[in-house]
Amino acid sequence: MLQRIKPVIIIYTFMTFGFSQLDTLHYGDVQSIVPNPFSEGTNTEWPNQKGYVAGTNIYRDIGKYQRFEFYSSDYIVGALLYFGLIDIDASGVADTITVVLKGISNIASDSTEGVYTFGPSEENLATAKITLDQMDTTGVGTLVMFDQAVQMAGDYFIADSFFIGIEWELTDHLDTFSLYSDSVGAVLGGGFNRAWEKFEDGNYNDFGCVLSPSYCWGYDIDLWIGAVHSADVVNVDNYKVLFPDKFRIYNAYPNPFNPVTSLNYDLPNNSVVKITVHNMMGRVVKTLVNDSQTAGFKSVQWNATNDKNEQVSAGLYLYTIQAGEFRHTKKMVLLK
Q: Can you tell me the mean pLDDT for 230-246?
């Protein structure tokens, strides 16, 4: 039983889902038929590329990362990793993987002048090391604890953004390892380019092709990495795990605004969604959405009018998104 965070690796495994179909995994110049844990249908546009993201010396990449938006000031204490395939070469020497916690950084494109987007920072906030032969590949999952707990700065209204990823050194042998992922985009990916990678020259690249449109995967995916967090940094037995497939509401953009702002959110499952704008007295000013929606990234605009299509006065407003049991409220400011 854990009593405090220690600079050692502690590994747990536990069942979270069952396998339901097979996919063709492409890594290097080899194709392998491997089990895929996802139950939703495969996107017909990429029938053989859904389910895995490979890390291997063949591609000369040295890192894969998943972005999280965290509406809490809890401590990030570890990571839960789901590997679909591990292949240790004939040498029998398993590669060492470093699990990293990173902040975000504004990264410039190495091919398109003036293009920037937020990706992983170079600095590691916390790390943990594990060898490939310690990783589970049955869909059970492997939990590793970071060498230190890092408190986030999110709250009920504003998220703290960070990345959790895996890094490795290029060696003279060819171990291959593959994280589960979802390239469909309708359930896990939401168009926010949350999956990133790093190459041996030190350059980062997003899977959504913002930084390097001429050389990228072109996928809208999320990696199957969970962020392990706890409100108690001394005793972390009561930890929770944040996965990328949770319902997520982003800050209004622009905010402050005049006269139009966009409200963006990720819907992990089909659900009845209701979005309302309230004034500071709690009265409903505008109902923007009240309908059944399919899963995926969603966006709705508010043009600073009420339900009678009349312009409202400048000031602070609240918007509430409700979907099933989920309910969240955030602030926005209208300028005149």
A: 75
